[in-house]
Design a protein that fits this description.
The structure is a single chain. With about 160 residues, the chain is an alpha+beta fold. It has a single domain (about 1-95, about 105-160), classed as Nucleoside Triphosphate Pyrophosphohydrolase, CATH 3.90.79.10. Helices cover about 25% and strands about 30% of the residues. Strands 1, 2, 3, 4, 5, 6, 7 and 8 form an eight-stranded mixed beta sheet that branches. A hairpin with a 5-residue loop joins strand 2 (about 40-45) and strand 3 (about 50). The protein starts with a helix and ends with a helix.
């Protein structure tokens, strides 16, 4: 997956633009609550699934900044910090066709964030709902391997903190 991701970025100078029809780079965040015990999932309106907050880069090649912006916009949480400096995970996944756009791929850069203030979230227009989920209960919300992989990675990181 890393080779495919790298090849996509190297071969498409406009990879951070949403208008690149075959796919584009996105940024997302697995958000930990203040005590580091739960993660925030959003029930995505367009996709109808529980996912981590995230979205389009819209031309911004700083995916770390994109992930923070999207996390704040989709959660209403203002006090967030990166739990670690680098990437938590990368993923390539298909987005189904809709009336206004064809099926395409998201090349997602994922970071681990943590709430450093209030854990009171605000549901955005992009979500049906948000929920703090115990990491051991994640399969009550999703069986998506890419999310389960992020949870496994986050648990390993938290166990060494």
């Amino acid at each position: 997956m890393i080779d495919r991701f790298q090849g996509f970025v190297e071969n498409h100078h406009d990879c951070f633009e949403r208008f690149l029809i075959i796919g584009h780079v996105t940024g997302s965040a697995l958000i930990l609550d203040s005590p580091g015990e739960r993660v925030l999932l959003t029930h995505h309106k367009k996709l109808g699934r529980w996912l981590q907050p995230g979205g389009h880069a819209d031309g911004d090649d700083d995916v770390k900044r994109v992930s923070m912006k999207e996390a704040r916009e989709e959660s209403g949480l203002e006090s967030l910090e990166f739990h670690q400096v680098g990437l938590l995970d990368v993923d390539i996944h298909s987005i189904p066709a809709r009336t206004d756009e064809p099926e395409h791929e998201h090349y997602d850069c994922r970071f681990l964030l943590q709430s450093t203030g209030s854990d009171e979230f605000v549901v955005s227009d992009e979500s049906h709902d948000l929920s703090w989920v115990q990491m051991d209960k994640i399969t009550d919300y999703t069986d998506e391997e890419s999310i389960l992989r992020m949870i496994r990675k986050a648990k390993r990181i938290l166990s060494t903190d």
